[in-house]
Design goal:
Glutamine Phosphoribosylpyrophosphate, subunit 1, domain 1
Length: 308
C-alpha cells in the first residue's frame, strides 16, 4: 500500500464556449464537477479501491441533470431514454457494460453489478433491466429522467430531422472517471445518454470496452467523450494503452498522438481523461472545451471547462 492516489473526471466535450455560457450555468457545472470529484476522492482518501471511486464519481454526475447521463439523459427519436455505461478494473481486466437501458437510475452501477455478478461483460436492453431487477437496483420512471432542456433539444432535432451530439452547440454529453488507488490499481468508468434523436438502437463508444472505456494496471485507465462512431473505429481507449505497452510511449505522448493526430485525421471530435500507474493525469481534447476536473497525487485539484 502507498499514499499515492489520484482521480480525474469529465462531463463531456464539444463546442463549449464562454460566449454562450451564463455565469450562473458555469457555476452550476463547476459545482457539479466538484461534487463528483469529491464523491470519488473521498473513497480513495479512506483507502478505498479505484473501482468504487470511479463508480461513485460517475453516479454523482448521473444524478446531476446538467449532464447527459442518468437524470437529464437525452431523448432518442421516439422520445425515450436509451442509456449506456461501462466500468473496468485495471487489476483483473474484469469489465461490465450495459447499453440501451431506460429505467435504471444509475447505469454505471448496473455496469458494475454486471461485472461483479452476471458472469458476462455486456448486457443490453430489457435483459439488462431484468438483471438489474434481480440485483435490487433502483429504478425510475420517465418523469425522473425528463428535463425541459433535453425535451426542447429533441423537439428541435425532430423538426430538423437530425441526430444531435447532445445539444445545438454540439456537446458530446458523456460522463466518466479514471482513478489510481493506494493499492496501485487503476479503474475507468463511463456513462452516457447518447445522441439526441438517435435511431435504430444506436450505441456509441461509452459501453464498448477498449473504445470508450479501458483500464489496465500495466499501462493506464481511460474514459472517452466524443463522436462515438469514430472512437469505436479507432478503438481509442485501448489504442492509448497499446501505444504505452508496445511502443513505450508515455501517457502524454500516447494521448497526444491519438487525440490530436489519429482522431483529427478522420474528423473525430472529442476528448478523454486518462491516468497511468504512476498517477500521471492527462485531460486531452481536440474540441472547443471539455468539462473536466482532477486531483493529482499531491492533492492539487483543477476544475476546468474551456480550452485555456
Amino acid at each position: 500500500m502507498t499514499n499515492i492516489f489520484a482521480l480525474a473526471i469529465h462531463g463531456g466535450a464539444g463546442t463549449i464556449l464562454r460566449s454562450t455560457m451564463t455565469k450562473e450555468l458555469q457555476t452550476q457545472y463547476e459545482q457539479g464537477l466538484k461534487d463528483a470529484l469529491s464523491a470519488g476522492y473521498t473513497i480513495l482518501e479512506k483507502k478505498g479501491n479505484s473501482v468504487d471511486a470511479v463508480a461513485a464519481a460517475v453516479m454523482c454526475l448521473e444524478d446531476n441533470p446538467l449532464f447527459n447521463a442518468g437524470k437529464g439523459a437525452v431523448f432518442n427519436n421516439i422520445g425515450k431514454h436509451e442509456m449506456d455505461a461501462a466500468i473496468m478494473n485495471g487489476k483483473t481486466l474484469e469489465a461490465g457494460a450495459v447499453c440501451g437501458i431506460s429505467t435504471v437510475k444509475n447505469p454505471v452501477l448496473l455496469a458494475k453489478t454486471t461485472m461483479l455478478y452476471s458472469g458476462h461483460v455486456m448486457l443490453a436492453g430489457s435483459g439488462a433491466e431484468e438483471f438489474a431487477l434481480s440485483q435490487n437496483l433502483q429504478f425510475e420512471n420517465d418523469a425522473y429522467f425528463y428535463t425541459q432542456q433535453r425535451y426542447d433539444q429533441w423537439q428541435e432535432a425532430l423538426v430538423e430531422n437530425k441526430v444531435q451530439l447532445d445539444h445545438t452547440e454540439k456537446k458530446m454529453g458523456t460522463v466518466g472517471a479514471v482513478a489510481l488507488d493506494c493499492f496501485g490499481n487503476l479503474a475507468a468508468a463511463t456513462s452516457t445518454g447518447g445522441m439526441t434523436n438517435k435511431k435504430f438502437g444506436r450505441i456509441g463508444d461509452s459501453p464498448v470496452i477498449g473504445a470508450g472505456t479501458y483500464a489496465n494496471n500495466a499501462t493506464c485507465a481511460v474514459s472517452c467523450t466524443g463522436h462515438g462512431e469514430l472512437f469505436i473505429r479507432l478503438v481509442v481507449a485501448y489504442d492509448i494503452s497499446c501505444l504505452m505497452e508496445y511502443k513505450g510511449l508515455s501517457l502524454k505522448e500516447a494521448c497526444d498522438l491519438v487525440v490530436y493526430n489519429k482522431l483529427v485525421a478522420i474528423n473525430g471530435e472529442g476528448g478523454l481523461i486518462a491516468i497511468d500507474k504512476a498517477g500521471n493525469i492527462e485531460l486531452s481534447f481536440n474540441s472547443e472545451g471539455m468539462y473536466r476536473a482532477s486531483i493529482d497525487i499531491n492533492g492539487n485539484s483543477i476544475i476546468k471547462i474551456y480550452k485555456d
